[in-house]
Amino acid sequence: MAVRTLLSRKTLASVLLRNDIGAGGMAAAAAAGAAQTHSRGIHALTLPDLGYDYGALEPVISGEIMQIHHQKHHQTYITNYNKALEQLQDAIAKSDSSAVVKLQSAIKFNGGGHVNHSIFWKNLAPPREGGGESPHGSLGWAIDTHFGSFEALIKKVNAEGAALQGSGWVWLGLDKEFNKLVVETTANQDPLVTKGSSLVPLFGIDVWEHAYYLQYKNVRPDYLKNIWKVINWKYVSEVYEKESSA
Ligand SMILES: [Fe+2]
After folding, report:
1. Does 53 appear as a known binding residue?
2. Which of 87, 107, 126, 214 is the 20 to 30 Å CA partner of 132?
3. What are its cofactors (predicted)?
């Protein structure tokens, strides 16, 4: 039976996106400020602005890295995601189910890249705007409860981030089913939700080489050690408060 007769274009596109990226991931991206415009009847993504200047995270992350990371890498994920969505629309219009299936990997990779980076920019803040200040309140208590201490959390994230082979992300997440904090890694541009449908990202650290190589060369552990000086715990705490009470 033709795909088109089973699902409308809009519904099928929605199903594919939810299966590949996860509704939580898209919601997280939307919450992180991802702008959207309409193109050919579908939502085309546009690059979200940063809440700070490219050089504002120096000396932890250089302005050159931030500019290239945002304007080139994140933009490329968006460009390729939008292109894949247009191709998906055409494939659905032609009832070409093989093409529909083939496009899923591009949608997952590039859509995941957009979701993850939209969260990442929000996870960072210049020190003069509170970046690096330790978490307080309920998130601080939860970290002590689940990891023993804030220092123990840092140690765990740094160890898992350094050990991740190839490219990917290391996350602090909330498992909403068990109301528990977790540290997880994902490969490539897989969003955290791919590790479990009840997982919500609180913050993610990009450990692709493009996130640190121009400054830290091959020494990923030094990048991980320093990035805590610009983590925006105020934002992370707000996400935790919202998600843990929902
Ligand atoms: Fe990146």
Report:
1. no
2. 214
3. Mn(2+)
